Amino acid sequence: KQEVTQIPAALSVPEGENLVLNCSFTDSAIYNLQWFRQDPGKGLTSLLLIQSSQREQTSGRLNASLDKSSGRSTLYIAASQPGDSATYLCAVRNSGYSTLTFGKGTMLLVSP
Amino acid sequence: GAVVSQHPSRVICKSGTSVKIECRSLDFQATTMFWYRQFPKQSLMLMATSNEGSKATYEQGVEKDKFLINHASLTLSTLTVTSAHPEDSSFYICSPLGGVADNEQFFGPGTRLTVL
In whole angstroms, what is the distance from residue B50 CA to residue B77 CA? Predict the structure, then answer.
């Protein structure tokens, strides 16, 4: 059974810092991996999708990497801003039409 | 990304009543619908998976007679919480899948259910 772990559980940084969120998964035979953002009381916003054959994806200040063989992904946020404050969730899919398995998330607080 | 709507966004009901939550995929056809719930400070937990026109498959520990799922069309699925109790208070989120390149999964905005 796939298990996804995210470290750290919470992170508080001053504005402007570059930061890394970590995600690990136990079954490396994944189909793809997605990073999401969730604001309090809201649904999930998809940030980045990495297919199993890819090593990284970039969108603006966000960069996600994937090392499938070691079961790890990282989300890099450059020049953090207070608006980045949210919970970041990592999720993996093991086959094309299976559901996602989620980590518990990293709660990020960026202070001005 | 795909546009997914949920209605209502928030509902408060008395214990023993039933609540229906609608999920619509507005710009693509959802052959599969996932329903999740999320308790405070917890991650999303899959409740059930439904395919259009078929009965839903429920995860272990989720009562199918309590959480009725209907996926009658490719753009609409409903979750009905029957005889709701305070322990059913949670954040319910739908996620349609199908017809989107690379199987990127999108989620509805969620429904906050509070049972008094």
Answer: 9
Which residues of B fall within a CB distance of 8 Å from A39? none
pLDDT at A22: 97
B28 touches chain A (CB under 8 A): no
Nearest CA distance, B16 vs chain A (angstrom): 25
CB A30 within 8 A of CB A52: yes
The CA distance from B19 to B22, in Å, is 10
Tens digits of residue pLDDT in A38-74 = 998 888 999 999 999 999 999 999 999 999 999 999 9
Contacts of A52 in chain B (CB under 8 A): none
Class of residue B66 by CB neighbours under 10 A (exposed 0-12, middle 13-18, buried 19+):
middle
Which parts of chain B sit beneath pLDDT 50? none
